[in-house]
Amino acid sequence: MRFGEVLLLTSRLSPRDAARAFAEAGVPVFPCIAGGKRPLTLTGFHDATAEPGVVAEWWSAWPNANLAVPTGARSGLEVVDVDVKDERSGFDAFSVAQAAGILDGEYARVRTPSGGIHVYFPSAIDRPQRCWQSATAHIDFRGDGGYVVVPPSCISIDTGRATYRLSSLSSGEPHPVDATALRSLIDPNSVRPRRDAAQASPSAALPGTVDRQRLAAWVAQLREGERNHGLFWAACRLAEAGLTAVTIEDALGAAASRAGLADDEIAITIRSAQRHVSRSSAAQGVWQECPVLATRISESSCRR
């Protein structure tokens, strides 16, 4: 069974059964909080697996958990996320990209609880594409370093609960989307010329999976009175390496939640960190010393 075939079944499956079906199809999954998007595991999408035994253990522990799938090379799936928030939406920009032929080759569409859509594409093995977001176009791209919540998960909203549900499944031959071309079209001011290796930030390649996991573990054990400061510092380190706010939240959000921070506090702190980095010398790749939060934080775990 393939990913699309599992999507077709989700309307009559519980999240627990859907998680098992995705895993059996070879699609790695991981649990998120019931009614939300926050991962339940310490390092979020890094923990995703298609191992049936692990998946069964997760949903035995959290039977009402939502389920999510990592995007990019981990799953072979990339997603164009058309957002709807308040009176703003990404559908105008999406229509422009469709007319330009950039979005030909979609695999499936999923209607999101906000009224937006997730448009799925296969990923290109030889062309990894990172996550990015366009606040002006109200479109996000989820590739390497990201994840999406998938059907039949439900999200708690002001009027009750809303479900992720399959909207359409393409009968054509799917092919990868050019995320750079899409971003250049819908948000040209956000695309900067690429720098060569000599010009690149010395920290650009630093926070790989191991470093993110270390930062997440550190954030998770922060105590009251140091949590916001600690999350801000960790988010700055990832922002210095060029990660987007979406990717930073994917990497640190679950850990910050475990430390006791609310979702809105986490989002605000991460956005503040990214703005701070863009205005400071840290944007040039200079790692700063960790904040002196407590003596139990070792120097080796907080410095470059």
Automatic annotation (TrEMBL):
Q: Name one Pfam family in it.
A: Prim-Pol
Transmembrane segment boundaries: none
Q: Which residues form the Primase C-terminal domain?
A: 216-279
Q: For the DNA primase/polymerase bifunctional N-terminal domain, which residue ranges apply?
A: 19-166
The cross-references to InterPro entries, in alphabetical order and at most eight, read: DNA_primase/pol_bifunc_N, PriCT_1
Give the superkingdom in one word: Bacteria
- The name on file for this protein is DNA primase
